[in-house]
Design goal:
The structure holds two protein chains of two kinds. Chain A has helices at about 130, 155-165, 180-190, 215-230, 240-255, 265-275, 305-315, 355-375, 385-400, 410-420, 425-430, 430-440; strands spanning about 10, 10-15, 20-25, 30-35, 40-45, 50-55, 65-70, 75-80, 85, 105, 125, 135-140, 140-145, 170-175, 195-205, 230-240, 280, 290-295, 315-325, 330, 340. Chain A is an alpha/beta fold. Chain A folds into three domains: about 10-70, Thrombin, subunit H, CATH 2.40.10.170; about 75-105 and about 140-315, Rossmann fold; about 355-440, no CATH class. In chain A, the strands form four sheets. In chain A, strands 9, 13, 14, 15, 16, 17, 18, 19, 20 and 21 form a ten-stranded mixed β-sheet that branches. In chain A, strands 1-7-4-5-6-3-2 form a seven-stranded antiparallel β-sheet, with no helix packed on it. Chain A has a two-stranded antiparallel ribbon with strand order 8-10. In chain A, a hairpin with a 2-residue loop joins strand 4 (about 30-35) and strand 5 (about 40-45). The longest helix of chain B has 25 residues, at about 455-480. The N and C termini of chain B lie far apart (about 85 Å). In chain B, helix 11 (about 485-505) packs antiparallel against helix 12 and helix 13 (about 540-560) packs antiparallel against helix 14. The chains are: A alpha/beta, B alpha+beta. Chains A and B meet through strand 5, helix 6, helix 7 and helix 8 of A and strand 1, helix 3, helix 5 and helix 13 of B.
């Protein structure tokens, strides 16, 4: 491992589960090192005492291990050769192919100057009405699925990725089960899009601390394609909860004081650094973009836990999946899901009636939920309640279900048909001029 | 000057061994290769000085040299601040080269070449003190006063002042003689340490003037005053940012300062994009002309996030000293508190609740105290109104930042998840929210002169209806629609009319987004008149069907231009509808 004239240290002074310390000089903060061949990174320097975080864990490291400092922070070689390849957390190929040749770039690089960004304004069509109609996605956006572990989030995400017409799709898999990893591989190769995919994968079989490198690796590759190649890049990060867990493990082993839910106090900044890489560049800068769709798994649907909570404050909305027992299908939950950027395209890039139709439908769907509660409590339903319930069922089947695949104009037309079938115009609370134009005659 | 060498590094907390005196909060620069990283002293033990670095410390080594500057973090004040986009350390973001922010790149925040048309105000022989007006330049149609620097202590005599003409900010415009007879040259630019409040004014009375925001749920229900303080806590997705943007666009202020503190970059980009296009509803000029943006988004360094709120406040106080009405909005103060927590954590201080520093609530209190309506020494008035958002962890209002803020802010706008879920925007809960200013006799007198003596009474009645409506709704939920008398349904629906027509407002509709006070008065009178009447109903179905039609017509009125033909037609339809069922008194 060591090159000629590189200094080798062999006296380790302290070892914990994730870190080891030694006396060394001339070491830079964040610098990489190898400890008996295992990759490690400098996390603390005090005088000549240097503490290293060992990504694979410190199992079996002896006190006389050979430590070599590599003089650089974690980096990735970037070039067109990345396309179609699978890598581990260190950016080494795991698909048996040759090493990548290209420019070496440090991962976790600087942030985009906010005045050099462009306001996102390009719609990403997914064909899923629960997303396109109610929670329209925009390129340059960052949005997670908040999902329970048993929900089909990876499938929905793969579908969205394939329909989104991105130039490159970059998959960052953290703690992915081997089955899910193979699922993604299969879906992408069956769709014939492997040449557009770059994957960085840490499976459940790999050490958890390695996961910390995955998002930065994926986004480093994304920045190469978006900045230098001016491409429209979609980054999929699954599962960010496992990433945050790895952060907690490291901070715990470094004796940091935990804040809410045993998470490090810097969780918000750590997550923001990743998600804020989502960007739309202006035409002058090539017009490329990075859109991030992530998964944050919840425990028992609890969104007040520090991980989903901090995520919600960072991302531009969140999508929830829910099984609708009335129609027996998985739907995109219209109440809790939100795309904060939808107003940048709804009614502007889509038909003028989009915002009002979307709001009216959700309001009526909420009335149906109230009616259902009344029904369950054994109260009589009014005629309006009955109509709301009928509407909700039709709306769930024809709009919210994730197997729907139609364009936005069709979604709007379907909604107007349903309004006309179940309601009077004054019950929909829509601007009169739109009612005049679109209400089914 | 004192110098030092790096001894230890943990993330952005660096230990430096120094060779001379340093002061708490002093600024220093750490040399790394060709660049210098700015840092601030936060703790001193013997020769070991702990500094928080405002940049990434990647590659920093033991032994790197450190130079101390002898001053605290300062803001540069002078004409040309308006319309600019700064980072938390007052670097002009537009002047930075490249797509990415490179560490160690700092610049001068003002234009040093531009000639300003200066008009003297002070005369030779005048006795002046800190913040006294020496002259005036026109900055984006605002009278920008050139003042005696805030750091000047005691009384000075104007020895000379330049004639009206064009000058750059660095040219001397006056010479002032102090009590000892020493002369001091004054230019148009001065510096001020951001963490110190500017106290160069005569007195700070209780705020009493309404600050119109055009948002009904604020102006009508819980008004904020010029120089007042308020905060908006809310779980994510409840519309904090949309509400803040609405206020910053519409509020009747001379200067608006937006501190984007640890929030999303795309939200700042929205402001960058929209403000140069949108018009100030009060003056008709472009919004950007009166706006300064301090953008320290969540991916920018944490330490400068902490600095950004102070930088914004110091600039706000500077404009207040010119006799202007300044509105300062910070989104979000929770991110600022988190920055404090991260540093406190690295310093291994004993933590308070949720690992926040023990003195969090004192820090918040001292910051809010810098807002206020003031009488300047020359008798003019100025104000800094401060509105902060709070992002409570898990939406739980019993957390340290919300509690610390609640003790000091006088207005509370509680955003509620349940309202947001039902798309009732702005999702401000009208019952939990409050404005302490309503109770001030000064404010009552002011509003009586502005509107009429019955206004506050009507607002109070409105809140009683809302409270009653909520109670009835709970009863209906328990007893069922036919388990309560028809009267109850009537009362419930009156509260719904208030909710839909007065409280809810469409921030994305061109007309409904801004509601001037005159129109708010009209709407409240209209709605309260509907509520005061009794109606003739057969059963509860009759009640809901009827009031839904009433609400629909009122909403169409809200969407129509005030007193336009369409508006009057809807009013006529509404009158006919009301006549159908109202029982004549």
């Amino acid at each position: 491992m060591a090159k000629a004239f590189q200094k080798i240290y062999t006296q380790i002074t302290a070892i914990t589960k994730a870190t080891c310390s030694l006396k060394a000089e001339g070491v830079g903060n964040d610098e990489l090192a190898t400890v008996n061949g295992k990759l490690a990174q400098v996390v603390k320097i005090m005088g000549d005492d240097v503490t290293l975080q060992v990504f694979e864990g410190t199992e079996g490291i002896p006190t006389n291990a050979e430590v070599v400092f590599l003089g650089k922070a974690p980096s990735l070689k970037v070039s067109e050769q990345l396309a179609g390849r699978f890598f581990n957390a260190y950016g080494d190929p795991i698909d048996g192919g040759p090493a990548i040749e290209g420019q070496e770039v440090e991962i976790g690089g600087p942030s985009v100057n906010p005045v050099r960004r462009k306001q996102p304004s390009e719609l990403i069509a997914t064909g899923i009405a629960g997303i396109d109609l109610n929670n329209t996605l925009v390129s340059g956006q960052k949005i997670p699925f908040f999902a329970d572990p048993d929900q089909p989030y990876n499938q929905v995400m793969a579908n969205v990725a394939l329909r989104a017409e991105a130039d490159k799709i970059i998959l960052g898999g953290m703690g992915l089960t081997n089955d899910d990893y193979l699922y993604f591989k299969n879906v992408f190769s069956n769709a014939g899009v492997l040449d557009r995919i770059v994957s960085f994968v840490n499976t459940t079989e790999n050490p958890p601390v390695e996961r910390l490198l995955i998002p930065d690796m994926a986004l480093c590759a994304a920045e190469y394609f978006a900045v230098q190649k001016h491409e429209k890049v979609l980054v999929l990060l699954t599962d960010m909860t496992l990433y945050a867990d790895a952060l907690a493990i490291v901070s715990n082993r470094m004796d940091q004081i935990p804040s809410k839910d045993s998470m490090p106090g810097s969780l918000y900044s750590d997550l923001a650094k990743i998600y804020e890489k989502a960007v739309q560049f202006p035409e002058e800068a090539g017009g490329g973009s990075i859109t991030i769709i992530a998964v944050t798994t919840l425990s028992g649907g609890d969104i007040t836990h520090a991980i989903p909570d901090n995520t919600g404050y960072i991302t531009e909305g969140q999508l929830y999946l829910r099984r609708d027992s009335d129609i027996g299908k998985v739907i995109v939950d219209p109440f809790r899901s939100l795309s904060r950027l939808k107003q940048l395209v709804a009614g502007k890039k889509t038909r003028e009636d989009h915002p009002q139709v979307m709001n009216a439908a959700v309001r009526l769907y909420a009335d149906a939920a109230n009616a259902k509660t009344k029904q369950e409590n054994g109260f009589d339903l009014t005629d309006y309640d009955e109509r709301c319930l009928e509407f909700a069922k039709a709306y769930s089947t024809q709009i919210l279900a994730i197997d729907v695949n139609i364009n936005t104009t069709q979604m709007l037309d379907v909604s107007w048909t349903l309004f006309g079938k179940y309601f009077k115009p004054e019950e929909a609370n829509i601007k009169q001029e739109l009612v005049n134009k679109y209400w089914p005659k | 000057m004192t110098t030092g060498k790096v001894k230890g590094i943990i993330s952005n907390l660096v230990t430096v061994v120094v060779d001379g005196p340093v002061s708490q909060n002093e600024i220093c620069y750490i040399t790394i290769g060709q660049t210098r990283l700015m840092a601030e002293v936060i703790k001193v033990i013997g020769d070991n000085v702990y500094v928080q670095v405002f940049e990434s410390t990647r590659g920093l080594k033991v032994g790197n040299t450190v130079e101390f500057t002898g001053h605290m973090l300062e803001v540069t004040l002078g004409p040309g601040l308006l319309s600019r986009n700064y980072d938390g350390l007052q670097n002009d973001l537009d002047k930075l080269t490249g797509v990415f922010l490179q560490r160690g790149e700092y610049n001068f925040p003002l234009d040093q070449e531009k000639l300003w048309k200066f008009e003297p105000i002070a005369k030779v022989g005048d006795k002046v003190e800190a913040a006294a007006w020496l002259g005036e330049v026109d900055e984006n149609y605002q009278p920008h006063k050139i003042m005696v620097p805030f750091v000047f202590e005691g009384t000075y005599t104007v020895k000379s002042i330049v004639a009206a003409g064009e000058y750059t900010i660095n040219q001397a415009i006056a010479v002032l003689t102090d009590a000892e007879g020493v002369d001091h040259e004054v230019t148009m630019v001065q510096k001020w340490p951001v963490k110190k409040p500017v106290l160069a004014y005569k007195s700070k009375p209780r705020p009493f003037k309404l600050l119109e925001t055009g948002v009904r749920t604020i102006d009508t229900a819980n008004p904020i005053c010029e120089g007042g303080t308020g905060f908006i806590p809310g779980p994510f997705g409840t519309g904090k940012t949309v509400l803040q943007h609405a206020i910053s666009k519409q509020a009747e202020a001379d200067i608006v300062i937006i501190a984007a503190c640890g929030e999303r970059a795309n939200e700042v980009v929205e402001t960058f994009t929209e403000f140069p296009e949108l018009e100030d509803p009060h003056t008709g000029r472009k919004l950007m002309e009166r706006t300064i943006i301090i953008a320290n988004t969540s991916n920018m360094p944490v330490a400068s996030r902490e600095a950004s709120v102070y930088t914004s406040m110091a600039i706000a106080e500077y404009y207040r000293s010119m006799g202007l009405r300044v509105l300062l909005m910070a989104d979000s103060t929770s991110r600022w508190a988190q920055a404090l927590r991260e540093m406190s954590n690295r310093l291994e201080e004993l933590p308070g609740q949720d690992a926040f520093p023990m003195d969090l609530s004192a820090i918040i209190g001292a910051f809010y105290a810098r807002a206020g309506y003031v009488y300047l020494n020359n008798g003019a008035t100025g104000s800094v109104t401060f509105l902060g958002t709070v992002s409570p962890a898990g939406g739980n209002l019993k957390e340290p930042v919300t509690e610390g803020t609640k003790k000091v802010a006088r207005c509370f706008y509680a955003l509620e998840q349940a309202r947001a879920d039902r798309k009732r925007y702005p999702a401000v809960n009208p019952i939990d929210s409050y404005s302490k200013y309503i109770e001030y006799p000064e404010f009552e007198e002011y509003i009586t002169n502005l509107i009429d003596g019955e206004w506050l009474g009507k607002v109070n009645d409105m809140k009683t209806y809302l409270q009653r409506g909520k109670e009835i709704q709970e009863q209906i939920n328990i007893l069922g629609d036919d388990g309560v008398p028809v009267d109850y349904h009537e009362e419930f629906w009156k509260a719904e009319v208030i909710d839909f027509v007065v409280l809810q407002q469409d921030a994305f509709d061109k007309i409904d987004a801004v509601c001037p006070m005159e129109r708010q008065q009209y709407i409240l009178n209209l709605v309260m008149d509907i509520c005061k009447h009794d109606y003739d109903f057969v059963d509860f179905n009759d009640v809901s069907t009827y009031f839904k039609r009433v609400i629909n017509l009122c909403k169409q009125m809200n969407y129509a231009e005030f007193k336009s033909e369409a508006f009057n037609q809807y009013q006529q339809q509404l009158n006919d509808l009301l006549a159908e069922k109202q029982i004549k008194a």
